[in-house]
Design a protein that fits this description.
15 helices; 357 residues; alpha/beta; Rossmann fold; 5-stranded parallel sheet; two-stranded antiparallel sheet; flat; Helicase, Ruva Protein, domain 3
């Protein structure tokens, strides 16, 4: 409708001379500029809480292969294709384990059937019910949702495990043509019973090859015995560690992220800004993204076109100290203070009245 109206309005104007046409064009463009919010829209594109830079932490297209991340992905894929059944990836919170698991899942989804377990809690009952729903939903009632939360009995666990093993042994038929890759990315730590369930499933062989491969992302480094990984010692077989970024990799990561987000602003972060982010974040992805997001938010509040060092300085300020648990004197004796102030007012009023007499 707008285009038709514009054409109808333009056609009679075209019959005039060039001055009239130029006057109408100037008037029309001026009206567009007055109502256009392209600048604000572009700024919202950068500073939005959901679409701005450093907000898409789990976008596989923004994956950064530096810091040995790309090498780890390739090594894990080669190990699975070489029939390795169990692989561990260790990393502290915020080191990029979830994004790495999504990249591996995307790379292997054609040749393997991917089963992701990313629930916050994990136990043998929860894992078995999750696998029953994925592999043999007709037997999902062996462990109900309520029993999975409180813990199923040993008989139910044994029955569910046997049903899964029987289903995996029949995987050579026409129903299931691809092996499975179980990706365990939970916030909780695996207990011994859950690890035993995973080991039994990965031990199932069909035609001499493993039918289930498992990649476990472990966030508890000290309890897993991998705290020495950060000291440069040799890793155990099929164990990988996600280390923090170095100063040079920090600058490369910032440029890489902005290059994929907006090619024209690939050099938005200067070397000094990268040094500051590296110092405050200590090379952890989650801290880097949070600091950059806060800087963009501050720049938006100041209506700036880009992030500067001053915005980073404000975003990197230490958090406000919490108030002490012990309340102040006024808070503890609020009622008495109010009564005293009220009596003072009454006494002063009475004294003023008495003096006036």
């Amino acid at each position: 409708m707008v285009v038709i109206g514009l054409v109808m309005e333009w056609r009679p104007r075209c019959r005039g001379n060039n001055d009239e046409r130029a006057s109408f064009a100037e008037k029309y463009v001026t009206g567009m500029n007055y109502n256009d919010t392209s600048v604000e829209t572009a700024r919202r594109h950068y500073f939005s809480s959901s679409h701005g830079p450093f907000h898409n932490a789990n976008n596989i297209f923004m994956f950064y292969g530096g810091g040995d991340r790309g090498r780890i992905v390739e090594s894990i894929i080669r190990s699975i294709r070489a029939d390795e059944s169990l692989i561990h990836v260790h990393g502290e919170p915020g080191s990029g384990k979830t994004l790495l698991s999504l990249v591996i899942s995307d790379r292997m989804k054609i040749r393997y059937s991917i089963i992701r377990y990313d629930l916050p809690d994990i136990s043998e009952s929860l894992l078995l019910r999750h696998l029953l729903i994925e592999l043999c939903p007709q037997n999902a009632d062996l462990i109900s949702a309520e029993n999975a939360q409180v813990g199923a009995s040993k008989e139910a666990v044994s029955a569910a495990l046997m049903a899964l093993i029987n289903q995996l042994n029949d995987s050579s038929g026409d129903r299931i043509r691809k092996p499975f890759v179980l990706v365990v990315d939970s916030l909780a730590e695996l207990d011994e019973n859950t690890q035993a369930i995973i080991e039994q499933l990965t031990a199932v062989r069909v035609s001499g090859r493993a039918i289930v491969h498992c990649v476990i992302f472990d966030r508890n480094i000290q309890n897993s015995g991998s705290a020495t990984f950060y000291k440069g010692e040799a890793l155990p077989v099929n164990h990988y560690c996600l280390r923090r970024l170095t100063l040079a990799e920090m600058n490369e990561y910032l440029r890489h992220h902005m290059l994929l987000f907006d090619f024209n602003r690939r050099d938005l972060f200067t070397r000094e800004m990268a040094y500051f982010i590296a110092d405050r974040s200590e090379g952890v992805f989650r801290s880097i993204n949070k600091l950059a997001r806060n800087a963009f938010t501050i720049a938006n509040l100041e209506a700036a076109d880009k992030v500067s060092m001053s915005h980073l300085l404000l975003a990197g300020l230490p958090p406000r100290t919490e108030n002490s648990i012990e309340s102040s004197f006024l808070a503890r004796h609020r009622a008495g203070v109010i009564a005293l102030m009220g009596s003072c007012v009454v006494a002063s009023t009475a004294a003023a009245v008495f003096l006036m007499r």
